[in-house]
Each structure stands twice: as C-alpha cells, then as structure tokens.
Design brief:
498 residues; globular; eight-stranded mixed beta sheet; four-stranded antiparallel beta sheet; alpha+beta
C-alpha cells in the first residue's frame, strides 16, 4: 500500500489535472518479490510528463512555488491526521469505525503522496531541472571569472532553511545531554556503564527519564520507515552516552544548531549577489530548495503515518486472526469488504507475500500472484539498456563534493547491507531511507538515477559524504569488490581494479 498510494493511475491523473498538467500516465505496474519492489511506467507517458513539468517550472516559476506551498500543506495535514490515529483507542472501535478511521488517514496520505509525482518525474530519468540550474550556474561563474565549484554553489543554493525532524531530534537530544552534564552523579552513570545498565538505572533520575520517554514518543518513529521497528529508549541512551563520552562542547553545539539556518541564509544571499543571479532564477532556486525540503518532509510524514497506521493494521490482524505481514498485503480497496464481512483471505495473502504484481490502469486494478504473475512479466516489453562492461570511467552529477578511494558494494535492498563494511563505497540504483545503516557507514555514494534533489543528494550533504548521482549504469558496471576512486567534485568515478 505504501507503493500503491503513489502508483494509483486514476488518482495520479486527477492530480495532474488539478495542477494544470495536460499529460497523463496510461498505466503503472508494481512487482513485489518478498521485500523487493520494482515500479514500471510506460516510457512515452513518463517522458511526456517529464518534459511538461520541466517546462512549467521554467516558464512559470510562480506555478512551481505554489506547488511547493501546496505540497508542504498536504504533508503537514497528513501529520495531523496520523496523530489522531495514534491518539485513538482502536480496541474500542467497531469494525465500521475502524474502517472509517483507516480511510480518513488514507485520504490524507493520497493527498500528500501524489505531490511526489511532480518532483520525482522531473528529476528521475534525465534530471532536467537539475541540469538547467547547473548550466545556468556554470555560465554565471564563467562570466564572473570567479574560482567557484558549480556543485558547491548549487549545493548551497538548494540547501533548505527550515529545520527537518532529524535536526529537531538532534537538538532535543543535545538539550537532554546538557541537563545530564551538570549532574556529576548522572554523568558517572553515562560514562562508566554499559548502555543496558544505564537504561536500568535511569529511573533513579525521574526528570531525565521523563524527558527520554517523551523523546521516544516525539522522535522514535523517525527510523520506522515502512514496516518498523522504530527507535526505542535504548537507542537514544546509546547516542546520549556517545555524545557525553566524546566530551563534545554541548553548549557550542546547541548554538551552532540554532545558528545553522541563519548562516545558510546569509551565505545564500551573498552568493546570489556575487553571481548576479536574476529574479527568475532566484525563484527557480527557491523551487529547488523547496523540493529538497519537501522531499524530506514527505518522507518524515510517511514514516510517522506508517508508524501510526501500523496500530490499525495490528488491530485488524487481531480481529481477523492474520499475521501483520498478511494484513500489509491487503490492498486499500479490499480492506472494507474483508474486515466487515470477515472474509477468509489468509491463503491469498500468503501467496502475495512470496511474489505478486499489481497492474493499475485508468479503469481497473489487477492483482496476480505466483506463476501467473511471472508469466505476465515475461510477456512485457521492458526496456533493457545495452552496457559496455569494459568501461573504466563513469560520469554523473556532483551531489556532494569530495574525493575518496574505496571498495565498492552494491546495495539495493536491506539484505544487501549484511556484507557492507565501514569505508565501502555504496553503489545503488537509487538510495532510500531503509538503506541508511549502510549510507552512514559508507565512504561515498554513487547512484544510477536521481538529481540534486534526490534522497542520496540530500543525505550525502547532511552527512558530508562525497556523492555522484545520475550515472545511469553504475550498478550494471561496478561489481562488489571493485576498487574505485570517487571524485565527486568533478562527477567522475574511476575503476582502479576490477
């Protein structure tokens, strides 16, 4: 359902009409193989949408700015609706009331999720918007004859000036660390004991214990992603202990966090003046900046929404005597009938868990499982790129500057992360939040698809890791164990040793 609320063709096309977009998407297809998901689009439809949305951004920046504002509003509303789910005692609801609550949250999710089509489409295949802005900056830097990196300037001008939930969480944790640091006995607890002992003893300090419990409620869902689990108290205790043991100047760190956005705004204003960026392109950079923020904001709202929705799913599982994974494979248009009529669907849902597809056209939704689904997939004409496996050098776009050497590790699913080691260079079709453990351990990041506003770009800048996106073929050319040099500043990857 996470995928289908985005891929619902009729709803996507209605959204395009609302936004004044003439092109539409004829059909979409989702392939679900255990925990792996692949999305398919008709190439012609997708490219037509890409061109039209790009033209709208360039020719009518006011339209783009209104889109950003609308996306932000829809996302904020999804947070509000999801919180109502969290605050509801679901066991007291009738089946009808439970379905109604589910549908209220679903409606808000659709409103939020569909806005992703515009920013994803214009950046997914050819990164048209990113390339336009990079080209403009390159011309300005050359005209002014200044020694500036195009990637560095782009990174600055598209950096959000609003606080993300991850930044709010870090600031909140720093404030708790400040309170711990002024109490010598409590500092001793954190400095001289294992995390499990700290967790047992922290109840002896009710003020800090209360703050930690609230911190879990406020931010534990940040790691929930699509199916959980979220962070618990032990995780935050571990991070607090690490902060305190490193003897970080917490007061200074708090001030830096508070002043972070003032500095970004000031630096952006200076760079705009230095390069004489015209009014139209100032608006276009505001749109790009809005996309970067709204993408993260939407992800946060999704994770909080799925965290709250999971309480509904578990209540449904209890009432229907199903597993949570089975319930997660009930599509939203099936739920009302299954729950209210207590339909026996366990075998059908188990088959979906192993392998199934969902084809959505303007008029119908078709679900196929097992061999029937596999036969259908083999009948399709799926675009296959021809790759020269002897390529020694790849080019892409600099998302975050820097230069590193390291061993390659291709990571597209959570299972791929098992062999990932600290210092490896992460190669992925397109990074997603569920790959964050590997991203944090990586020395650098390379992706096939995505532009300056994709997940890999946003995360790499936050973590200060070299990153190149939009190589198109990295996962097809680079293999596990290859030794690479990643020169992200120049968007170049060199295969040193296969």
């Amino acid at each position: 359902n996470v995928t289908i609320t985005y891929m619902d063709t009729p709803l996507a096309n209605n959204y395009f009409k609302e936004m004044g977009i003439k092109n539409c998407i004829g059909q979409t297809l989702v392939e679900l193989d255990h925990q792996s998901v692949k999305l398919f689009f008709p190439i012609k439809d997708y490219k037509n949408l890409e061109q039209e949305i790009f033209a709208k951004f360039i020719n009518d920046p006011d339209w783009g700015l209104k889109y950003i504002k609308d996306s932000h509003s829809r996302t904020a509303n999804y947070f509000v609706v999801s919180k109502k789910v969290y605050n509801t005692n679901l066991k007291k609801l009738t089946d009808r009331q439970l379905v109604d609550l589910y549908q209220v949250q679903l409606k808000a999710e659709f409103a939020m999720h569909l806005t992703g089509w515009i920013q994803n489409t214009v950046e997914m295949e050819n990164q048209l918007f990113t390339k336009h802005l990079l080209g403009y900056l390159k011309e300005k830097i050359q005209a002014k004859k200044v020694k500036l990196s195009v990637g560095d300037v782009f990174s600055l001008l598209t950096s959000p000036t609003e606080e993300s939930y991850a930044q709010k969480e870090y600031r909140s944790l720093l404030s708790i660390a400040q309170k711990i640091k002024v109490d010598k006995k409590m500092m001793g607890l954190f400095l001289n004991n294992e995390d499990r002992i700290i967790e047992e003893k922290i109840v002896e300090y009710p003020e800090i214990d209360k703050l930690l419990n609230q911190h879990v409620i406020d931010f534990g869902w940040l790691s929930y992603q699509y199916t959980g689990p979220g962070w618990k108290k032990d995780y935050f205790i571990s991070i607090l202990a690490s902060i305190l043991r490193q003897d970080i100047d917490i007061k200074k760190a708090v001030v830096e966090e508070e002043n972070r956005f003032k500095k970004i705004k000031s630096d952006q204003a200076k760079k705009i003046k230095e390069l004489s960026i015209d009014q139209k392109h100032q608006q276009l950079f505001e749109i790009a900046k809005g996309i970067v923020f709204s993408k993260g904001f939407r992800k946060d709202s999704m994770f909080y929404g799925y965290y709250c929705q999971d309480f509904i799913s578990r209540e449904i599982a209890r009432r229907l005597y199903l597993s949570i994974d089975q319930v997660r494979n009930i599509y939203y248009w099936e739920l009302e009938d299954i729950l209210l009529n207590k339909k026996k669907v366990a075998d059908k849902l188990t088959a979906r868990l192993n392998y199934h597809i969902c084809l959505i056209t303007q008029k119908k939704k078709i679900i196929m499982s097992g061999q029937k689904a596999k036969n259908f997939m083999t009948s399709l004409e799926i675009k296959q790129e021809q790759i020269d496996n002897d390529i020694k050098e790849l080019l892409g776009d600099c998302a975050s500057p820097g230069k590193v050497r390291g061993v390659a590790r291709v990571v597209n699913t959570q299972a791929d992360m098992e062999l990932f080691e600290t210092g490896n260079i992460l190669i992925s079709i397109s990074t997603s939040p569920d790959l964050m453990p590997a991203i944090r351990k990586s020395a650098g990041i390379i992706t096939d698809i995505g532009g300056m506003t994709c997940h890999a770009s946003i995360v790499s800048r936050e973590l200060g890791k070299p990153c190149v996106v939009g190589t198109k073929i990295a996962t097809k050319v680079i293999k596990n164990g290859d030794l690479l040099e990643l020169n992200a500043t120049h968007g170049k990857i060199t295969l040193i040793n296969k």
